[in-house]
């Protein structure tokens, strides 16, 4: 009993000492009453986490249901009625399984009461060593940067669509005067993100994530409604089988195998487009790089169980939406499905404008959710590098007008570096309007290591699974299958990039 009491006392003392050190690095609450009592701290000396399964689900859905959901009719068109939905289901199940493995890696060695791993790369370092941690960090942060540029391009495309819809409403369709440059919209998006980037951490993004999640449901639903409307107006759902001669097949109809090989679509084109479609599906499920950062916002104990439930809710919800958008969109547009099911659609105009507004709002929130791990990594490193610097570590309390005894905390380093980061992302998005192809490349290269390899490798290490045992072979086979799919997707993305480079990509699109 004496030994146990001494150990408990030492743990409390260590926690108090850690909390004192943390006071110079971050505020106890970014918005709150300024209390610094021990009761406001978690077991690791950091501000008490308040996240729940619902808030974690909102963060995940905000990250995973991007505007890429609007490209799923094109994906189904490349793979067909059979392979398309099956591919969605397969990658959905794989992603849920590996994300569940990852949830148990938040704490070490015990998944419920062990030491916390605050981010993905730290968990990889804990289970697999420092070299793997460095490799994971590079892949993770390069992907985050790439997604940021992709988000900026996506938002601006929707902003331009809103402008054109308004212009067409005033001047009529086909007016050349409705052409515009992307640059003013890109600057406006950058200014908005500079302001929102000052939200200090993932825990403070719950409201923004919830709004963004609702917006994603809204524009995906509008896309489905527009597709249903197109079918109802006479676009019959017809599946062409081999009993029809090729010459009688309309490329606009739906088929079991998707876009058919013919004079204008070679076997090579079919292969490359199928690879690109697989890459788009992988990108649609590439959210594992955020999971441990999201889990770090959840209230304990047993964060792993809550996170697994959040994963189940999120993956199920997104898969249903993906299947609905992809299949209904394919039924409406057939093998001629566009890369964006809302592109070129202006009827009814108010509904299309609403959908694009929802996309912009969702992308604004998703941009912040995706970048929080990168923000946290840079700021944590800087705090350790310059421990005595007030510029880096000091938080200035600012009273919030209209809220009694409520304050927010401003950090000068956070203002300067995050603003600079957003500016760089915005400038790159301006000169690379074809960045969606590069985004597909980054997503395909990041999917296998971040979503498949590292979670499986950490699980094998944690469970001490014997090499060449049946379970080890099955896990490695799953990893190998996903690696092959990722290599194919990378090849398809590289071909897309080469085609974009041949078409004057640096010209801002109107």
TrEMBL record:
Organism from which the protein derives: Papaver somniferum (Opium poppy)
Keywords carried by this UniProt record: Amino-acid transport, Membrane, Transmembrane, Transmembrane helix, Transport
Region (Disordered): 28-50
DNA-binding in keyword set: no
TM segment ranges: 56-76, 82-106, 141-163, 207-228, 312-333, 349-370, 415-432, 438-460, 472-497
Protein name: Amino acid transporter transmembrane domain-containing protein
Locations listed in the record: Membrane
A single Gene Ontology CC term: membrane
């Amino acid at each position: 009993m004496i030994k146990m009491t001494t150990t408990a006392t030492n743990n409390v003392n260590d926690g108090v000492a850690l909390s004192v050190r943390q006071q110079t690095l971050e505020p106890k609450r970014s918005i709150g009453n300024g209390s610094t009592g021990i009761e406001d701290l978690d077991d690791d000396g950091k501000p008490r986490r308040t996240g729940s399964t619902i808030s974690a689900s909102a963060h995940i859905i905000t990250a995973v249901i991007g505007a890429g959901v609007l490209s799923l009719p094109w994906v189904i068109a490349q793979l067909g009625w059979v392979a398309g939905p099956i591919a969605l289901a397969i990658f959905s199940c794989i992603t849920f399984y590996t994300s569940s493995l990852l949830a148990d890696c938040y704490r070490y060695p015990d998944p419920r009461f062990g030491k916390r791993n605050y981010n993905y790369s730290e968990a990889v370092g804990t289970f697999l060593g420092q070299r793997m941690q460095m490799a994971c960090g590079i892949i993770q942060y390069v992907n985050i940067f790439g997604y940021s540029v992709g988000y900026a391009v996506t938002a601006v495309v929707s902003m331009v669509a809103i402008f054109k819809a308004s212009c067409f409403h005033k001047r009529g369709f086909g007016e050349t005067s409705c052409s515009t440059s992307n640059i003013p919209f890109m600057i406006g998006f950058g200014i908005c993100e500079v302001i929102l980037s000052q939200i200090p951490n993932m825990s403070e993004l719950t409201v923004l994530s919830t709004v963004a999640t609702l917006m994603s449901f809204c524009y995906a639903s509008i896309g489905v409604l527009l597709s249903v409307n197109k079918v109802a107006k006479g676009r019959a759902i017809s599946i062409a089988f081999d009993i029809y001669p090729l010459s009688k097949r309309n490329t606009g109809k739906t088929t079991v195998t998707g876009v058919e090989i013919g004079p204008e679509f070679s076997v090579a084109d079919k292969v490359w487009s199928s690879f690109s479609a697989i890459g788009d599906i992988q990108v649609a499920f590439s959210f594992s790089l955020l999971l441990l950062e999201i889990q770090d916002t959840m209230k304990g104990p047993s964060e792993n169980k809550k996170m697994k439930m959040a994963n189940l809710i999120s993956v199920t919800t997104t898969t249903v939406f993906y299947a609905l958008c992809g299949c209904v969109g394919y039924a409406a547009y057939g093998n001629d499905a566009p890369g964006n099911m809302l592109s070129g659609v202006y009827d009814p105009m108010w509904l299309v404008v609403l959908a694009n507004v929802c996309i912009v709002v969702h992308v604004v929130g998703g941009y912040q959710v995706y970048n929080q791990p990168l923000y946290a990594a840079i700021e944590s490193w800087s705090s350790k590098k310059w421990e005595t610097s007030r510029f880096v570590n000091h938080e200035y309390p600012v009273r919030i007008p209209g809220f009694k005894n409520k304050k927010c905390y401003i950090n000068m380093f956070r203002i300067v570096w995050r603003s600079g980061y957003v500016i760089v992302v915005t400038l790159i998005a301006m000169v690379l309007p074809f960045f969606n192809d590069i985004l597909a490349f980054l997503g395909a290269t990041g999917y296998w290591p971040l979503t498949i390899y590292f979670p499986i490798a950490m699980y094998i290490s944690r469970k001490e699974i014997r090499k060449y045992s049946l379970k080890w072979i099955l896990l490695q086979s799953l990893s190998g299958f996903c690696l092959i799919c990722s290599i194919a997707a990378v090849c398809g993305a590289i071909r897309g990039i080469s085609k974009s480079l041949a078409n004057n990509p640096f010209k801002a699109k109107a």
